[in-house]
Amino acid sequence: MTIQNNFTACGIRANKQIGFQLMLSIAVFCLATSMLNAQTTSAQTSSAAAKQAPTSMAYKDTSLPLEQRVNDIVSQMTLEEKISQLGNNSPAIPRLGVPAYNWWNEGLHGVARAGNATVLPQAIAMAATFDAPLMHSAADVISTEFRAKYYAALHPDGSADWYKGLTAWSPNINIFRDPRWGRGQETYGEDPYLTSRMGVAFVTGLQGDDPKYIKVVATPKHFAVHSGPESTRHTVNVTASRHDMEDTYLPAFRATVMEGKAESVMCAYNSLNGQPACANSALLQEHLRKDWGFQGYVVSDCGAATDVFGPQYHHYTATPEQGVAASFSTGMDVICGDYRNHMSVEPEAILGAVHNGLLPEADIDRALRRLFTTRFKLGMFDPKADDPYSKIAPDDYDTEAHRQVALKMAQEAMVLLKNSEGFLPLKAAPKTIAVIGPDADDLDALVGNYNGTPSKPVTVLTGIRNRYPQAKVVYVRGTELIAPAAGDGASQAVDAARNADLVVVVEGLSPRIEGEEMKVEAEGFAGGDRTSLNMPAPQEQLLEKVFAAGKPTVLVLMNGSAMSINWANEHLPAIIEAWYPGEEGGTAVAGLLAGDFSPAGRLPVTFYKSTDQLPAFDDYSMSKRTYRYFDGEPLFPFGYGLSFTNFAYSDPNSTVAANGDVTVSVTVTNAGTMAGDEVVQLYLKHPGVAGAAIRALKGFQRIHLDQGQKQQVTFTLHDRDLSTVDADGKRQIVPGKVEVWIGGGQPIGPAGLPKTAGIRTEFTIVNTATLPD
Question: Is residue 33 predicted with pLDDT exceeding 60?
């Protein structure tokens, strides 16, 4: 509307005697009043409409197509009712029979923040199993417990309590590109292929296989290119090359959306190449919707919608109205408001965006259709008799059967990093065992972050006592995590070690010092992240003093990220990486010591010797990062892990099919003295191809072999497995020789580490092809 039109609309004629400035002020006041009156009238009309009964009940007719039902219910909502549904805590619309629903639920490695639940090992530990079928089973357990909690919490009006819904904000499939990131424990490690396979297994296990109904919604996060530092996550503009995006940062999201059929995706806090992730056209429109055909809904990370416009954050827009308009128009569908330190995006901002012409109501309708499509798929508007999951009892959580899954996952996650001269398993039960260290009897070290509450947690101390009931087990904490113990905790630890037949030192980190946006003030830590990969100084000093007592000593690490344990690797006979192993972690550690099973966990991340080997933390280029592009010598490489038995590889064979697929097979034999698992890993190398990784994991299978047993293991490589990415981000199949390594780890290892069993072969690609994004 022009200024003259403003005058006319208010009944004002141009008058030089009044003065232009005064006329303008009157016109502006008049216009604001008319808009307020219009909004008041609209609100009154909406209020009246809100009291009306539905004009159609088609949305309750289960025989109708889903799209028709969704369109019917959305079309009957007033604008205010629509807007009310765009936050994570969506209120009821009683006249339409829409119950209140909170979209915010956490299920990273078990139902979190909802009371007692089965607590599986932390995500990084589950990745260390290299066992996708087991991951699928674990996710199925999680979804069963979500359903049980949901049924138990349902109110008569159909609403449920916070954290007891059916939309889980998991898995975290960001690439753990730098070990200093405090939230890396939530991921499946540094490799895009491993992350993709474990991510798809988790998503499909969580969502179920019913053709009509979803068991629990999975939400791969944080889309995209999000991995620290925590201190800048609300303000940073990450720059990522087209090569790194296609080669590293996007494959797991593509896989969980296109293969796993994830119903939801969470957009991240950070900006990417100049646009906030929750208003990023390349991410939400080009990749997610156009290239991958995603039909589900996008939820913001909590507070990320505010980050779009907040002057202390991205300041991508000047006002909240412009911010929500940019996000919803680009493809975000529901806002998670932040109840902590950031401004919440109030419904008034969305309403204002609509009234000011910034946000078409059609964009709101589109978001609502996505959200209500999901709610219908979850069975929230259908009779209970139609619910295929209604057989799940409200108390079907924290069960013995589920605890056994947690135990198996913990056992498979254990990585034996060092075992000099067969120190483990123990040859005989020790008479006296000294258990020392701040993580030995600590619940936090079992459960990690984003966790539930185990009813029967087994710490390492408890596990050892249970496994060796006849032994005298002496426990001394010895030190705090990042500060010396009060008093003489270290002259006590040493005394206990001197009087023991075996010393088990349990040290490392804790979710209290590494995690999400934390306030930790200590050397080596900052904001939840780490500035050093070394063992915290008080723990390192305790370890050295205890070892000096001269007794057989095992180090058990409990942590969510790689550590530079150089001194321990040089001096101790045995080191176990136990991660944050879940509620049965202590049982698994004790069982490994005793030889109840042969360990076969593998590192899903590279263990570096120090931060000196790494680029700057805030540099998102993959150059010299992870095993795929790191050209130095690591302390322990990605994919590494020892066993109590030995495996031999023979009879390699590769065949190129007419359609371009390649089949590679090998015979694996348990040539050792006990039964055990082997993680068979396939790596490809493309010599001379620009942009190709040094080597890249493209297949893995975890198999079990009895002593002397052999098995042929076969991998089928498809087009994306065979492709490389050029500088422009184009994924291509390039003619030439491809080198293949199949073994129990990578074909390299730092000096002093046991040689990895495996075998080489090769094949030749003759065709050229460019693959879709």
Answer: no
Q: What is the pLDDT of residues 150-202, one digit of tens each?
A: 999 999 999 999 999 999 999 999 999 999 999 999 999 999 999 999 999 99
If one counts every other C-beta atom within 10 angstroms of the C-beta of residue 733, the result is: 19
Q: Is 619 a catalytic residue?
A: no
Query: Quick check: helix, strand or coil at residue 364?
Result: helix
Give φ, ψ of 94 to 5 degrees.
-60, -40
Catalytic position from the list 230, 247, 263, 301: 301
Are 699 and 681 in contact by the 8 Å Cβ rule? The answer is yes
The torsion angles phi and psi of 46, rounded to 5 degrees, stand at -65, -40
Q: Please pick, among 190, 514, 529, 577, the residue that the annotation labels catalytic.
A: 514
Beta carbons within 8 Å of 33's beta carbon, 6+ residues apart: none
- Band (pLDDT 50/70/90 cuts) for residue 7 is very low
CA distances from 213 to 140, 259, 448, 725, 756 (A): 15, 17, 31, 37, 45
- Residue labelled with tokens 């590279």: 606
723 CA to centre of own chain: 26
CA 669 – CA 664 distance, rounded (Å) = 17
Contact 283, 226 (CB under 8 A): no
Task: Identify whether the C-beta of residue 744 lies closer than 8 Å to the C-beta of residue 757.
Answer: yes
CA 205 to chain centre: 15
User: Distance between CA atoms of 481 and 513, rounded to whole angstroms?
Assistant: 8
pLDDT in tens, 533-568: 999 999 999 999 999 999 999 999 999 999 999 999
For strand 736-743 and strand 676-685, is the pairing parallel, antiparallel, or unpaired?
antiparallel
Dist. CA 243–CA 375, nearest whole Å: 37
Nearest CA to 391 among 151, 209, 194, 170? 151
Predicted confidence band of residue 119 (pLDDT cuts 50, 70, 90) = very high
Round to whole Å and give the CA distance between 690 and 63: 55
Six-digit token string for 439? 């993580």
DSSP annotation of 290 reads I
Q: Which single residue is written with the structure tokens 């999901």? A: 374
Rounded Cα gap, residues 447 and 463, in angstroms: 15
CA separation for the pair 529, 501 (Å, rounded)? 37
**pLDDT at position 489, please?**
79
Do the beta carbons of residue 475 and residue 504 sit within 8 Å? no
Rounded to whole angstroms, how far apart are CA atoms 598 and 589?
Answer: 11
Structure tokens at 500: 């023991």
- DSSP-derived letter for residue 60 is G
Strand spans (E) along 25-98: 89-90
Provide the pLDDT for residue 27: 40
Cβ 634 vs Cβ 660: under 8 Å: no
* HSE, side-chain direction, 13 A CA sphere, residue 770: 5
Diameter of the chain measured on Cα atoms = 107
The model's pTM is: 0.93
pLDDT given for residue 344 in this prediction: 59
Judge whether 118 and 398 are in contact, CB under 8 Å. yes
Q: What is the phi/psi pair of residue 139, to 5°?
A: -65, -35
Does the active-site annotation cover 67?
Answer: no
Q: Is the dihedral of CA 113, 114, 119, 123 positive or negative?
A: negative
Sign of the four-CA dihedral 294, 175, 181, 639 = positive
Residue 46 in this model has a pLDDT that exceeds 70: no
Give me the half-sphere count of Cα atoms (radius 13 Å) on the Cβ side of residue 699: 22
Output the six-digit token pair for 34. Answer: 């008319």
Q: Distances from the Cα of 108 to the Cαs of 120, 205, 398, 408, in angstroms?
A: 9, 13, 16, 17
